[in-house]
Known about the structure:
The chain is α+β, with helices and mostly antiparallel strands. It is 37% helix and 26% strand.
Amino acid sequence: MSTKQDNNFQTIISHAKEYGFVFPSSEIYDGLSAVYDYGPYGSELKKNIRNYWWKSMTQLHDNIVGLDAAIFMHPTTWKASGHVDNFSDPMIDNKDSKKRYRVDHLIEGFAEKLESKGKKEEADALVEEMNQLLAKEDFAALKTLIETNKIGCEVSGTCNWTDIRQFNLMFSTEIGSVADATNTLYLRPETAQGIFVNFLNVQKSARMKVPFGIAQTGKAFRNEIVARQFIFRMREFEQMEMQFFVRPGTELDWFEKWKEERLAWHRSLGIAPEKERFLPHIKLAHYANAAVDIEFEFPFGFKELEGIHSRTDYDLRRHQEFSGKKMMYFDPEINQSYIPYVIETSIGLDRMFLAILSSAYEEQELKKEDGTSDSRTVLHISPKISPVKLAIFPLTKKDGLPEIGKELMEDCKTAFRCYYEEKDAIGKRYRRQDAIGTPFCVTIDHQTKEDNTVTVRHRDSMTQERIPMSEVKKMVLGAIL
Ligand code: GAP
């Protein structure tokens, strides 16, 4: 990350804390690494993104239904899914500082430093060699690569490294009171498996016909080793996943369709096209026959925001094998039974939150009519998901203006989130709402008492217009639906 990128990112993190979006978890105890809490406006924004995704998947698709599976699952689930054996990253420990690193992050961090010193070719060659060795799982050669490049620990500064070992990313715990291996439970590292094991329950109970999808949102847990990018990489996070079950042989068409559909969803929230790109996976996971990431340009560069994967029949087939229960679907249109193929769309809710926050954040210099200048910090969040939709300001605390404002508040608050405030100058109140992304502010003044009109101030353009108070609710509803 360049210094400028780092500064921008730090500014957004500070803003998120100051305005009640995101706090470090258990901060009074100095926080817990890679775990965060969402504050008053953050929890609203997060809920709104989740609801928007849920609605776009279930309500707007006749052939997608929802599920809310438990976080704990039978331990065999994770054997069948491959997570017990394969969900691990190669790690290396520094013997002096005892600090543990993900090997790819350690080498990439060093390559970034080379690049910032103008040695781009050297950096690219190093990353290329690392990728080849990782693909071959040649850990001895990877350790040699670290040693010959004299890649040191950021804490101790030494190159005194252990051997490289695989480190499973699942958190485990025990069920019941007796701790033995058979009682080991895992906190789910993805929500997808809850969908796969319930495939037939859902298909039969909701009378679904292939092609159809199952959508789910919920917490997932990964013991990430390098967790340094705010809510980008967390140990406890939330996923929004949809598994779409299709007839074998049709999966690549559906894969293309879902790529386009997901990109359109991102656009519908106002994310600029140049801020996102597709990154096709060159090296596919053993169960996939196509995969692509939607990358977003975070303040620290383009990184994965969402994955779209053609997972073949791998998961259902493995659950059939491990459970001994049939995972077949009888397709009445072709009179055949088969295990459906699956297209998965999987997006991190917290990453989407960060994408929204960082693309919405702007510090603006404003020229005033008298020639002086002013500034404001504004979040250009789509009204569909902004934490507060409407702020209501009586111009003064007297002359019956607060009563009118409260009446409007009562009328609107059952339909959407409103905020009422009487304190401070109007300009100051506008700034506070800009900083949390409220799209509309309404001021009630003495003219309101005469003709029942109010001044609406629009967040992005800062333009103001006078409209009948009876139109306010309709105007906001028009913008958020
Ligand atoms: N079921 C497929 C799956 O879990 P993944 O690429 O490992 O695939 C999907 O994760 C999405 O979950 C990612 O694109 C990312 O948005 C989010 N995600 C993964 N690990 C995360 C973490 N440690 N912190 C926050 N979000 C994460």
